Amino acid sequence: MPVKVVSSVIPQRGLQHALFQDFRGLNRTSDRLNAPPDFLYDLLNGYVKKDVRTNLGIITQRDGSAKFNSVILGSDYGTTKKIRVTFEAKWYGGSTDIIIRAGTAWGKFDGVNTFNAIDTGRSDDVLGQCAMFKNELIMVDGKIPRKMTAAGAVSNLSADANMPQDSDAVWVHRNKVWLNSPANPMIAYFCKTNNANGDTAWTGATDAGTLDLSTVLPVGDRIRAYRTYGGVDSGLIAIICDKYTVIYAAGSNTYEFTFLQYFPTTCLSGNAMAYVGNDLVYPSRDCLTSLIQSYTSNALQVNPLSNYITNLWRTLEGQVSDTTQISGVFNHKLNHYYITFPISGNYQTLVYSADIKNFVGRWTYPFEIYSWCERTSGVILAGSDGYVYTINTGTTDDGTAVSFKAAMPALYFGDAIHYKKPIEFEGLVQVSAGLTFQIDYWYGLAALVTDKQTISISITTTSSLWDVSYWDESYWDTQGNTLVRSPDILGRGKMVFLEFRNSTSGSQITIFWFRLGFVREGVN
Which of 55, 186, 333, 368 could be disulfide-bonded to 347 (CB atoms 3.0-4.6 Å)? Predict the structure, then answer.
C-alpha cells in the first residue's frame, strides 16, 4: 500500500492535514520537485523496512559497527593496508576461519584479535577471490593460484603448467574449479572433475578443458567472474565479462558444456556479485543488473533490479576511479544487498531490500569499506584499512555516533496552485535511548541555506503522551514509543521540504508515520 495523503473535509481556509505512512524506499529518477511523496529522496544511515505488525514501510536508523580485530595484518612492519578480500573459509566438521587479502599478503584471524600472515610476497594492493574445494581454500590474486589446507599449509594449487598462472577469478561448478587468465582474457579454464590440484589437473587429456568466448562473442572481452546460475544444483554457469554475460549448460558428461545465450552487459566489478534468492545481481553502468529477469524471458538485454535510483547510481558510479573495486554482499538476515562505491574521501554504500524490492537507504561509515563478507552465522563483516568491522551491531560505529537523516521530496499537499502555511507537525516514533529529534524545513528551491528552520525535540524512552485511562502507559513507555508534536512551524509556500535528523550518540530512532497540519491560502 502506498503512502496515504489524507485531507480533512473542512473549509478551504481551515486547518487541513496530510498523513504520510508506508514509505517505499528511495526515488532518484527525478529531482525532489517531482519525486512521489510515498518515496524518500534520501535516507542517510537508515533504511525503509517492512513492519511485520502493520505490513507498512517504516523509516529506521541503521545499527552501528564494531572492530573485529585490534591487531592488523602487517603491523609487525608498521604498514596499514587496505583489506581487498574478506572471506570465511568453511572446513569439514563445521569450523571456520576468517581470511583477508591486504598489501602483499594473505592473512588468517587467530580467533582473538590478530590477523597473521599465511602467504606473503604477493603483488601489492590487488583484488582477489576465494573459493572452497575438497576442504581446501583456493586463493587467487593475479599470480599463480594458491591453496591452504585446514591445518594451515599453503602451496601452489597445482604443478600443472596448463593451469593459468595469473588468475584473479575463481569459482566451483559441477565438481570443477574454474579459473580465468588476464593473459588470455576470453578463455574460461576448468580442471578435471574433483581434481584441481593434481600434477595434470588442468591438462585436457580427459575432462579438463577450456571454453573460448571469442567463438561466441562478437567483440573482445575480459572474464571477471563465474557464478552458478539458477540455484546450487543447476548445471548452468554464468561467465561474467566486462561487456557480456555468457550462459553455458553442463551436459551429461562432466566436460561437456553447451552454449545457451549471451547478454550485453557492463559488469563493473566481479567482487560485488551476490545471490538475491535465485537471482544473480552485479553492478553495471546504469544500475544493478538482474540476470533472472533477462534469462527467464529470453530478453536481448539484461534488466535492472530497480529503476528508482538510476540518476543516483550514475552519479556515484561516475565518481569511482576504478570500478573493479566496487564491492558488495547480500545480508540474508535483513534481506539486504549492500554495494559500496569507492569514491575518494566519500565512500557510499547503497542498500537494496528484497522485501521492499527497491533501494531503501544510503549508508556511510567513519571508515572506508573495501570488501564484504557474510559469515555462515549471518554476521556481516567489512574489510577496511587494516581492520575488519562487524556490521549491524550496537548503536555507534565503534564509539562514533551514527549520523541519521531522512529527506522528503517536495510536498505540495495535494496541489501546486495554492500557497500553504504549515502549522503543526506530529509523528509517531520509537527510540532506543534518549535523543534530540531534529526537524529541518524550508520553502523554495534555493532556500535550504538562507531560510531553513530547525525544530529540536527532546525525546526520552519514558515519555508518553497517551492518557493512562485509555492506554497501558507502562507498556507504551517500555517500547520506547512516543508521539512527538510541534505547533511552531513558520513560513508559507507552494511546497515545503522536510528533513529529519538524529546524531545523538548511542541512540536510534524509528519513524512510523508523521502528519502535517496546514492552512490552504490563495494563489498569490
Answer: 368
**Distance of alpha carbon 515 from alpha carbon 482, whole angstroms:** 14
Domain residue limits at 459? 15-63+405-520
150-192: per-residue pLDDT in tens?
Answer: 999 999 999 999 999 999 999 999 899 999 999 999 999 999 9
* Angle formed at CA 291 by CA 286 and CA 295, multiple of 5 degrees: 125
Classify residue 466: in a domain, yes or no. Answer: yes
CATH code of the domain covering residue 470: 2.60.120.260
The structural domain count of the chain equals: 1
Using alpha carbons only, give the angle 295, 299, 305 rounded to the nearest 5 degrees.
Answer: 65
Edge to edge, the sheet with strand 187-190 lists 170-173, 176-179, 187-190, 209-212
The owner of cell 549508508 is 363
Distance between CA 335 and CA 380 in Å, rounded? 12
Residue 245, domain member (yes or no): no
> Among candidates 191, 185, 187, which has minimal Cα distance to 205?
191
**Which positions ≥6 away from 39 have C-beta within 8 Å?**
23, 24, 25, 26, 27, 308, 409
User: Tens of pLDDT along 58-70?
Assistant: 999 999 999 999 9
**How far is 328 from 282, CA to CA, in rounded Å?**
8
Residue 428 lies in a domain: yes
The answer to whether residues 435 and 104 touch, using CB atoms and an 8 Å cutoff, is: no
pLDDT on residue 7: 40
In this prediction, residues 391-417 reach a mean pLDDT of 95
Whose CA is closest to 261, among 283, 279, 236, 281? Answer: 236
pTM beyond 0.85, yes or no: yes
Q: Please check whether residue 94 lies inside any domain of the structure.
A: no
